[in-house]
Amino acid sequence: MVKALQDGDIGGAGLDCVEDEPLPQDSPLWDMPNVIITPHTAADSPFYMDRAMNQFCESLKKFINNQDILNKINKNKGY
User: Fold this and answer.
1) Under 8 Å between Cβ of 36 and 10
2) N or C: lower Cβ tally within 10 Å for the chain?
3) What pTM, to 2 d.p., does this model score?
4) For residue 9, what are the CA distances in angstroms to 2, 14, 30?
C-alpha cells in the first residue's frame, strides 16, 4: 500500500487499524500527506456500549438456545 500511495496508484488512505499495531514510528505512512491515521477508534460513538451490550445479550440468548450467534467467526474465510 505504501508503494501504491507513493506512486499515485491510490490517491489516499484513511487508516484506523493496521497489520502491526501500534504502527511503528518509522513507518512512512506517518509522513504521507495523503494518509489519515486514527488511533483505532473510528467505530467509537456515544451509542457503542449500548449497541455492543444488546448484541452480546442477543448472542447469549441464541447460544443458550443452541442457535447460531451473531457475527460468528468463519475461520475458513479468515474473518
Assistant:
1) no
2) C
3) 0.57
4) 10, 15, 18
- Asked if the model's pLDDT at residue 45 lies above 80, the reply is yes
How does DSSP classify residue 65? T
The C-alpha cell of 48 is what? 457503542
Mean pLDDT on 47-62 = 94
pLDDT at residue 13, as a whole number: 97
Q: How many Å from the N-terminal Cα to the C-terminal Cα in the chain?
A: 21
- What's the grid cell of residue 72? 460468528
Nearest to 2 by CA among 31, 39, 22: 31
Distance CA 12, CA 2 (A): 10
**Helix, strand, coil proportions of the chain in percent (round to 5)?**
35, 10, 60
Distance of CA 40 to the CA centre of its chain: 7
